[in-house]
Amino acid sequence: MNEFIIPTYKRLPVAFERGKGVWLWDTFGKKYLDAMSGIAVTILGHSHPAVIAAITEQAGKLLHTSNAYHIPQQENLAQKLAELSGMEQAFFNHSGAEANELAIKIARLYGHSKGITCPQIIVMEKDFHGRTFGALSASNPKIHVGFEPVLPGFIRIPFNDISAIEQTIHNNPNVVAILLEPIQGNAGIIVPESGYLKKIRQLCDQHACLMMLDEVQTGIGHTGKLFAYQHEDIVPDVLCLAKALGNGIPIGACLVCGAAIGLLQPGQHGSTIGGNPFATHVALTVLQTIETENLLDNATKMGEYLLEGLRKTLAAKPIVTRIRGKGLMIAIELDRPAAELRQFGLEQGLLFNVTAQRVIRLLPPLILTPEQADLIITRLTTCIDQFNLKNG
């Protein structure tokens, strides 16, 4: 029935009908290890009992009322996120792109509050913030093609380059914010040097700029901390979340603190369904489950275990050029384009994706066990060997 779907995705020839933990079963009954978590979403795995219970409980009570009224579940989630993040207030929507759109609006409001008529936002080369128009304009120019003219107001500089930030701020008095991913996900899991975020925080404080972090992919535990910036003991002014926050239930959030507080007024932003009782109740359950099951520690331990195993197994292969990662965000970079590898993955019963043309991206759930990590290593090695034999 593909003729009824707008073809915006190059879909693999498989459909799934059920899942449990790290496993998915397709419509023919074949079993696959999901090492992608639905692109960084199902961090508790599939059909987690706590998530099922939360969905069932809230669906039997109330799904939606609108933001014209108080929503206790939304208020509880906002309080929990504030306690865990060091942020102060939250706005809820449906996706990471929407959260980033709001961050851009906040930056412009901040600039106008300072009397700057054309506020500028520093963004990073190869960053990806979403495909809505503001988020797209802030993202890698490769995704701009066909949609020009994009929105003005963004200054693009190299990632992991503090001197470029310093020079850009010095040369552009209208810079009001810096927006970036703490780890570049779509670009191939690019991890900056230690201290990078802390230096950005210092520059933002020095020049009265907002530090805005897109943690749509890194957030909610993937790096071994609930938020990637917590590795450097800082707090941003704006924090964007989505993906794993709902473990598959659509929800996004934009959190603010410090200089970003008090900018938005009634009528300046909204979301009809965003933050409804159903989505926020499930998201709160996700956060509570991460705590009660000690999954941040597991993400750290299993990330180290998986990285070590991959390096032992793959580092000597000429086709593999680099293996890197943080927590359970792991990349294996190859010496050639490798989109075809995903098909080999289907044959081996392993789900992963290939980004930046030649980077295998692994984002397994936080519940991963050593035995499952070993299966990832074994099956991925077979995929790479088969691909190399065919394309060598």
Task: Describe it.
- The chain is an alpha/beta fold and 392 residues long.
- It has two domains: 2-34 and 295-391, Aspartate Aminotransferase, domain 1, CATH 3.90.1150.10; 51-292, 3-Layer(aba) Sandwich (Aspartate Aminotransferase, domain 2).
- 36% of the residues lie in helices and 18% in strands.
- The chain has helices at residues 37-40, 49-59, 72-85, 96-113, 133-137, 162-171, 196-207, 277-292, 295-314, 341-348, 370-391, and strands at residues 16-20, 23-26, 31-34, 89-93, 120-124, 154-157, 175-180, 210-214, 238-241, 252-256, 320-326, 329-334, 350-351, 353-355, 359-362.
- The chain has a seven-stranded mixed sheet with strand order 4-10-9-8-7-5-6, sandwiched between helices. It has a four-stranded mixed sheet with strand order 1-2-3-13. Strands 11-12-15-14 form a four-stranded antiparallel sheet, with helices on one face.
- Strand 11 (320-326) and strand 12 form a beta hairpin.
- The longest helix is centred in the C-terminal third of the chain and has 22 residues, at 370-391.
- The mean pLDDT is 97.
Which class of secondary structure composition applies to the elements? Answer: alpha/beta
CATH class of the largest domain: Alpha Beta
According to DSSP, the number of beta strands is 15
Q: Which architecture of the largest domain does the CATH hierarchy give at level 2?
A: 3-Layer(aba) Sandwich
Distance between the termini: 36 Å
Strand order of the largest sheet: 4-10-9-8-7-5-6
Instruction: Tell me, briefly, the overall form.
Output: globular
| Residue fraction in strands | 15-25%
What is the oligomer described by this structure? single chain
Q: Work out the helicity level.
A: 25-40%
| Tally of alpha and pi helices | 11
| Unreliable residue stretches | none
Main sheet specs: 7 strands, mixed
